[in-house]
Design goal:
13 helices; 487 residues; alpha+beta; globular
């Protein structure tokens, strides 16, 4: 027994009436389907990428005009277009296998657990070091779960030891998806890039693996930033082992495809200096909020060091509404720390001036958090304690920021109010941390804490370099200083 990922129903979905059912990919356009319904959030996000990739492979819009003309779903058209690619989407069998080496691989099989990023590797399990990861959760995987786990693993592949390549976006990339907040088809279509249908032979498992141990690299199609392989990359050399009912193991060999210079259309990028290589952004192990917006949700005017995902840039040009799903594994080299899943408001149709003001609000908040961090030095050591206060600062100011963001969108200037909000939260946190038990400290420590609070107040009044770091992004006038004194 096998599974064909085009013709057969295998994707669990949630429907508008709350029911659940299993559908084939072409049914993503049916009017009652809301979203994928896998038992893990990373599989759900990967499933969305998979469906977007299928549309880009078989029936993408040629340009923005066609994109707009085909916004309404047409399941039967999609079924016909996808059917031509069915021979390339067998999970098992003697011919080409989905996302697996064209030729069988020899060697001992690994547990199927290895297909999940938060599973313990062999050395981790042997050393009993699996504290944040898990071992032996999946002895077998039914064919649909194996297919989705395989796709997720290839799309997000982290560092995996000698020769085991990361994905073309590195290990645990940051993923941003426009969500028009309607049906599943609307989300898929909103994120599908313009292009032309690809030949089936462009899929990497339809050819011998481009083994990279001799320095071989794979670049995007000539003149392009990406091709269909962006959605179906094969950094890992894998072959699934199975019986009649389930996948039971995975053979892995090193030196899969090494991708260079690709830009995935669903991820933001950055670079260290103008003219240097573009690098994919990766999520941090923390709440994703407004402090993370720059280069992801917002683009600083004139900056050529960061770039939003293509799907967001296209959607803003179409002046569409909705929200943005932000997701991805936060990694520490080979170790997963957390899976980030967040929904952020999409502030479309912003004027250049309004977007610049929002950038200023965030930069001022970053400066304010740095001032608070500096002020807490007398009472908190470097490291986790002060980083926790920094994270608390952004979480506590999140609601106020979103209110000011809406005001900015209406053409208002919330800079003075935002300064007051930042000041109030910084002083609240400083006082709660530094002042309790102050009268029981020695004189020297009391003096340091008192001076730290005074410096904090002065910075929020606009004095000194730290005050300038807060005031300047908000375009607020700083207080005059005496002649000869620098502000």
């Amino acid at each position: 027994m096998s599974l064909n990922l085009i013709d057969e129903p295998w994707i669990p979905v949630l429907c508008t009436d709350g029911s659940r059912r299993i559908v084939a990919p072409w049914q993503m356009g049916e009017p009652d389907i809301v979203q994928p319904d896998w038992p893990r959030p990373d599989l759900n996000i990967a499933c969305l990428e998979f469906l977007i990739g299928l549309v880009f492979l078989a029936d993408p819009p040629a340009d923005s005009e066609e994109w707009d003309a085909r916004r309404d779903a047409d399941p039967q058209r999609l079924r016909k277009k996808l059917s031509h690619y069915a021979p390339a989407f067998n999970l098992l069998g003697d011919g080409p296998r989905f996302l697996q080496d064209l030729e069988p691989l020899s060697g001992e099989g690994n547990p199927v657990d290895m297909l999940f990023i938060d599973s313990a590797g062999a050395n981790t399990a042997r050393n009993n070091a699996d504290v944040m990861v898990h071992r032996s959760r999946y002895d077998r995987l039914d064919f649909p779960m194996a297919a989705m786990a395989l796709y997720t693993f290839q799309a997000d592949a982290p560092s995996g030891g000698a020769g085991n390549r990361t994905s073309m976006r590195g290990g645990g990339p940051l993923i941003t998806l426009v969500d028009p907040e309607r049906m599943l088809w609307d989300l898929v279509w909103a994120n599908t890039p313009c292009g032309q249908p690809a030949n089936m032979e462009k899929l990497p498992w339809m050819r011998p693996t481009r083994v990279s141990d001799m320095g071989q690299q794979t670049s995007p199609p000539e003149g392009e930033l990406f091709g269909v392989e962006a959605f179906f990359g094969m950094p890992r050399r894998l072959r699934l082992l199975h019986d009649d009912e389930a996948v039971t193991g995975v053979i892995q060999k090193p030196w899969g495809t090494n991708y260079i210079l690709w830009k995935h259309p669903l991820s933001p990028y950055y670079r260290m200096k103008p003219g240097s290589e573009w690098l994919p952004k990766h999520p941090r192990a923390e709440h994703f909020g407004y402090r993370n917006w720059l280069g992801v949700m917002l683009q600083k005017s004139g900056s050529d060091l960061s770039e939003q995902a293509l799907c967001l840039r296209d959607w803003k040009e179409r002046k569409g509404g909705g929200s943005v799903i932000v997701a991805g594994w936060s990694m520490d080299n080979m170790k997963p720390r957390d899976f980030i899943l967040s929904r952020q408001p999409l502030l479309s149709a912003l004027s250049v001036e309004a977007e610049g003001r929002l950038v200023g609000l965030i930069q001022a908040a970053e400066a304010a958090a740095a001032v608070l961090n500096h002020a807490l030095k007398p009472v908190l050591a470097d490291g986790e304690a002060r980083e926790a206060e920094r994270e608390e600062f952004f979480i506590r100011t999140e609601t106020k920021f979103l209110i000011h963001a809406q005001a900015t969108k209406r053409g208002e200037n919330p800079a003075p109010a935002w300064l007051a909000d930042l000041r109030a939260q910084a002083l609240r946190q400083f006082d709660a941390t530094a002042l309790p038990g102050l009268n029981q400290r020695n004189v020297q420590m009391i003096g340091r804490i008192t001076e730290a609070r005074r410096s904090l107040v002065m910075a929020f009044a606009g004095y000194g370099k730290l005050g300038g770091d807060i005031f300047n992004p908000l375009d607020l006038a700083r207080p005059e200083t005496r002649k000869g004194k620098a502000a």
